[in-house]
Structure formats: structure tokens, C-alpha cells
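We include this case.
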Amino acid sequence: MTTVLISGSSVAGTALAYWLREQGMTPVVIERAPALRRGGQAIDVRGAARTVLRRMGLEDKAVALKNHSNGMSMLDREGNEIFRSEEFALSSGNLDSDDIEILREDLVNLIHEQNAGIEYLFGDSITAVHQETDGVTVEFEHAEPRRFDLVVGADGIHSSTRRLVFGAESQYSHHLGTYLAVFSEENYLGLDHWQTWFNDGVVGGAAMSVRDNSELRIYLGFGSDPIEYDYRDVQAQKQLVADHVTGFGWEVPGFIERMWKAEDFYFDSMAQIKMNTWSEGRVGLVGDAAHCAAPLSGQGTSLALVGAYILAYELGRTSDHSTAFARYERRMRPFVEINQALAQIDRQTVDPAESTRRTDEAKNAIDLDALID
């Protein structure tokens, strides 16, 4: 049986582990964190990705955990309402669509439950990859070296697998001019299935109710040229947000105060990963590690689910990993490119109907059943 080491246990990694086992392979998942990561923003499962969930037997469970919103309002810097909509929301688009907006951690947990029996190595990371003709020897930060048939990096935009095998992140990362933080809080605002956004053109954010109004997801963002920072230094990241998100009215000063105590704080640049190839020998990439589209696209999760499904399928239909990686990339790249383009849409100025049209076009721009020889 083919053994595959997967680096990363978020959506792409857990989904790939599921589908590789379905193809008769033996996946092993390694994750730097001591357990599945908590927190993260509300994410969307759309079009072809919803079909993947259905084939995993998880569609109904995901729908049951869907975040329901009745609409949104937009405030200016002083907290005055500019407009409101009960048909459209910035986080999820057209509220009448059949897309599934779900918290990232809830989706990962659903897939992880399907992966009972699969080996997970938590609290460890890859430090070296040695490719040979008939396999890959991997060194770890803590565990003893092990040998696998293949290695797949599903470890996000700052993929250490990509860095070890393909080179520095700077070769592939394209900054989109924005930084975003997100964290959880109790719903002390009493929002009722509602999203409240604020923006002055450079700085902005939102509070949205989730988990049937019991919690908030708070977003704080700002525009900036690339900033050098340690993406593992959470306190330094919080200071960056506090330094940039200033001078706003409404509840924003309170958000900053609560941010300092948040335990599931996430911060990163809005950037895209663009590579000429997603494989090198016996090592491949999937999800954000290969082709991050940025949260601005609203399609990162869908790309992760579809990419994991296609990569596992292609690896399962041939014993030649080079052929499988090539077929996977040939099928996925057009889908990735049309969805990366969505991140260039300014959803605050583009007509919501036009934004929805572009998203609907992109989310189904792949045929999951088409074969490429």
C-alpha cells in the first residue's frame, strides 16, 4: 500500500487523508500544533466543493452547522450606518444561495471524525526531506526519521514543506495590500444572525454572530505594504493590529481590548501563492500551500476540498506519481486561476449582483467527473 505523509491538519490535509484512504492508500498526518487548531473565520463551501462534501457523506452534517445570517450593515469611521442589506452579506454573498457558510474549525472537526484510524502526529513538524528513487526519507523536529512513498504539503500559505522542497516563500507569495485578524468572543453585542461591518477605505472589520448567536467572530483589518513580522509571534501580531486599527467609533475600541485576551487569535496578510508547478519528484502541494487564493476570494476552502479530492483520485488511478501529479495540476490549475481572480473584486464597490454572478461562475468551473488521460 502506498504510504503518504501529509503535512497539515486543516481542511486540505484532513480531506486528503480521507480520500487517500478511500483510494486504498495509507495516509499519515503531521501537525505542528498539539491538536486540531481552534478558531478561524467563517468559511464557505460552494459549488463543486459541496459535491465533494456530499461524496464524503458530510453534506447534511455541514448544513446542520451552517451559519445563518439575516443580513448586514456597513458603518463609517464614526459608527454611522451607511447602508444595510437583508439579501447580501460580505462574508457569504447572496443569502438565498445554497452555499454553506460554516466555521473553519467545525468543518475540520467533521472531516477529522471521518478519519478515525488514520495516524496523526501532533506537536511535530518536518525538518528535512530526502528524496530517493523509490521513496522519501523525512526527518522530524521530535520523532525519529521515517520513510514514505510520497509527501504532500497541506500546511497553508506559510508551508514549511514548500520551503524545504521548492524554496523560499518570497518566490511565490503575492501580497494583496491587506492584513486581517480574526478571533472569537461571546456575543456581548446581542447580534441576532447579523453582520456589522465598518470601513474607512484603509482600515475596517466586522462583528458577526455565529453558533446560533451564542458567539461572535470579530474581524480587524488594515491596508499596508508588506510588513516583516514573525507569523508565530502572536503578541507582536496583536500589537500590529492595535497600532493600525485606531480612531474608530462604535464598538471598535472594545474589540481591541478583547483582542489582547483572545486565545484563538489569527492574523495574516491577504496574499496569493502562485507557482509554476505544485510537485517536485515525490513531493506535492495541495490547498493554500500550492495556490492560496486569499480569504478575499471566498474560495480557499472550496479549492482545498476539490484539490484534495482530485489529487487523491489521480494518485489512486496510476502507480506513476509523476503522471498523477501532472494530471492533478492540469485539472486544477484553470479552476484555481478563475477563483484567484475573485480576490481582485472590491466587494464594497462592485454591485452585489455582479459579485454574486462572478462567484457563481467560478465555484462550478470544474467537472469533477471529467478524466484527463
Remarks:
- The two ends are 23 Å apart (CA to CA).
- The mean pLDDT is 92.
- Residues 321-340 form the longest helix (20 residues).
- The chain has eleven helices and 20 strands.
